[in-house]
User: Which sequence fits this backbone?
């Protein structure tokens, strides 16, 4: 059994209630990371979403698939067995409504905008690593960049432009108290720009980006952790709000 196959087995076992993985050495690079993602996803079922981002403005694009059964419409309650860390990030998602244009097309960006619809989402954050906050960035990415699903609001029903959400007003509340409120901005690119970069880069990894999926494009509020029983509401500009909770 290769090292990658062994890691895949350990991560799958952790998702099924087995021991959390404790890395003893770092991964050699992105090829190993994405091979691990592919192997784990093959054992989990259907891909229904993607998360995309960069560690900082000068870093390569990173991305990870999101399994279908962990993506649910708002309002949604996550159980302790689904999310031991109870992390959440308020983000802008794009629902893929039609086959995507070729990245090489001269009208790629406007054609892409015509294929997608914005929506407010909570990315739910958890890990199959024993010490995710001290694990290397490559290990976090191999573990789907700590993704544990999405909770998504109703999509926008009014006209929009790709630059509309470059620096939107956002609000995240927990139990009715503001956790974050004010203008927000990704630390690397606009949300639509991140979507475009994913379509250009992802290729056929884990089946590629497909109609019916939702792509979430990076945190507007930073990663926050919440107490058991917390009731969350997230708002982005004029989009319908999203709500989620963590079971007590």
Assistant:
């Amino acid at each position: 059994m290769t090292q990658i196959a062994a890691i895949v087995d350990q991560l799958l076992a952790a998702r099924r209630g087995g021991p959390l993985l404790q890395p003893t050495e770092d991964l050699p690079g992105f090829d190993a990371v994405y091979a691990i993602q592919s192997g784990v996803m093959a054992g989990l079922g259907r891909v229904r979403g993607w998360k995309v981002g960069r560690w900082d403005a000068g870093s390569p694009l990173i991305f990870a698939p999101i399994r279908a059964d962990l993506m649910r419409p708002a309002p949604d309650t996550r159980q302790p067995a689904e999310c031991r860390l109870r992390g959440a990030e308020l983000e802008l998602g794009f629902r893929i409504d039609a086959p995507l244009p070729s990245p090489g097309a001269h009208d790629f960006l406007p054609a892409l905008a015509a294929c997608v619809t914005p929506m407010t989402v909570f990315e739910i954050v958890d890990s199959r690593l024993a010490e995710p906050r001290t694990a290397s960035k490559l290990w976090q990415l191999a573990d789907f960049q700590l993704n544990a699903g999405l909770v998504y609001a109703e999509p926008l029903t009014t006209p929009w432009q790709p630059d509309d959400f470059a620096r939107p007003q956002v609000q995240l509340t927990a139990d009715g108290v503001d956790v974050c409120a004010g203008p927000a901005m990704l630390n690397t690119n606009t949300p639509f720009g991140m979507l475009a970069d994913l379509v250009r880069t992802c290729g056929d990894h884990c089946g590629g980006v497909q109609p019916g999926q939702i792509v979430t494009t990076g945190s507007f509020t930073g990663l926050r952790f919440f107490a058991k029983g917390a009731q969350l509401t997230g708002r982005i500009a004029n989009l319908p709000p999203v709500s989620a909770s963590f079971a007590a």
